[in-house]
Write a structure and sequence with these properties.
The chain is an alpha/beta fold. A seven-stranded mixed β-sheet has the order 2-8-7-6-5-3-4. Strands 9-12-11 form a three-stranded antiparallel β-sheet. A two-stranded parallel sheet has the order 1-10. It contains 13 helices and twelve strands. It has two domains: 131 residues, Aspartate Aminotransferase, domain 1; 226 residues, Type I PLP-dependent aspartate aminotransferase-like (Major domain) (Aspartate Aminotransferase, domain 2, 3-Layer(aba) Sandwich). The radius of gyration is 20 Å and the shape is globular. The protein starts with 18 loop residues before the first helix and ends with a helix.
């Protein structure tokens, strides 16, 4: 058998390890997962109820056009229903963009470090990833991104707030950037953590760009603050002509009925959203104060995770934390040597993590 040449250079995505696997490996009864930026409060009870009800009809194919969720999002964001496309999380839409717009000989620009699935999908479609390093403060360098544009550039990826650093660019920076981007280059703005950052007065209003531009695709997801990571539902927002091209490559029935129902119910549960934001702020405040007291530098975050510099070998610290029942994301797989990316859990989980980390660092 011969696989595609473009896949030969692709390394599989490295997800956070499952809780049950760590329990078995280390003989632990309790394990806390702070690796995949999931909502520690779980999912909205209304979303769970809606998913359960939808299970009664799983013998039938789901609505291929996601009509009900499409209408709900259009009302929620004051847009038109044709401004949306749906996928299996943001991941499925990232894959869809690359299948639609990239081929051998093309280039695709992305910050470094950023979400690894950009590079993976670019490579899988035969294009060349062009990585532009973040500045010394782990923040975007818009001018460097612009200077990387060539006649071969087809897609630019902007993750805002950025994963795995947690930093964000501002409204002023966004407007200046888009003024200089050629109209024939697609800019994908990945806002997976939008709900966590939207309260920041400097956070950009990317939806406003849709009025004058057809070369922007905004990605959002129900996997993070809405707590539906296991159901895989995300959506893209863009010009209807752009989305029509993406629809040509979208698999039919790609989002299951329980996921569509749960997403719509989650969107309407503002109480759960507010409780999630409050819990995140509480955990973030505790971790930032703890890291400061421990003398550990960290990136100021606008998300539900925080990147902290342990000043040690990241893989060593990561593996030591596993033995104590804490799963985080090690910087050795994120392009951030020495760093850990830690999901902001409940206050109790954050306190336990800090205690475990402090104990480990004292022995290294």
């Amino acid at each position: 058998m011969q696989i595609k040449k473009t896949l030969a250079q692709v390394a599989p995505y490295a997800p956070g390890r499952p809780i049950d696997e760590i329990k078995r490996q280390f003989g632990l009864s309790e394990v806390v997962k702070l690796a995949s930026n999931e909502n520690p409060l779980g999912a909205s009870p209304k979303a769970l109820a809606a998913a359960g009800k939808a299970m009664q009809d799983v013998f039938m194919y789901p609505d291929p056009n996601a009509y009900s969720l499409r209408q709900a999002l259009a009302s929620h964001l004051n847009l038109q229903p044709e401004n949306f496309i749906f996928g299996t999380g943001s991941d499925g839409l990232i894959e869809l963009v690359c299948k639609t717009f990239l081929a051998e000989g093309d280039e695709s620009i992305m910050p470094d470090p950023s979400f690894s699935l950009y590079e993976l999908n670019v490579l899988a479609n035969g294009a060349t990833p062009v990585k532009v390093a973040l500045d010394e403060n782990m923040q975007y360098n818009p001018e460097m991104l612009l200077s990387a544009i060539t006649s071969k550039t087809k897609v630019i990826w902007l993750c805002n707030p950025n994963n795995p650093t947690g930093g964000m660019y501002t409204e002023k920076e966004q407007l200046a950037f888009f003024e200089k981007v050629p109209e024939n280059v697609l800019v994908v703005v990945d806002e997976a953590y939008y709900e966590y950052a939207a309260g920041n007065t400097d956070y950009p209003n990317s939806l406003a760009l849709l009025k004058d531009r057809n070369n922007i695709l905004i990605l959002r997801t129900f996997s993070k603050i809405y707590g539906l990571a296991g159901l895989r539902v995300g959506y893209g927002i863009g010009d209807n002509h752009l989305l029509a091209e993406l629809e040509k490559a979208r698999p039919p029935f790609n989002v299951c009925s329980p996921a569509l129902a749960a997403a719509e119910a989650a969107l309407e549960d503002e109480d759960f959203l507010n409780r999630s934001l409050k819990a995140n702020e509480e955990g973030k405040k505790y971790l930032e104060e703890a890291f400061t007291e421990m003398g550990l530098p960290f990136v100021k975050t606008s998300t539900n995770f925080i990147a902290v510099d342990t000043k040690k070998d990241a893989k060593t610290v990561y593996e030591a934390l596993l033995t104590k029942g804490y799963i985080v994301k090690g910087g050795h797989v994120l392009g951030m040597p020495g760093y850990l990316r830690v999901t902001i859990g409940t206050l109790e989980e954050c306190k336990g993590f800090v205690k475990a980390l402090s104990s480990i660092l004292q022995t290294l």
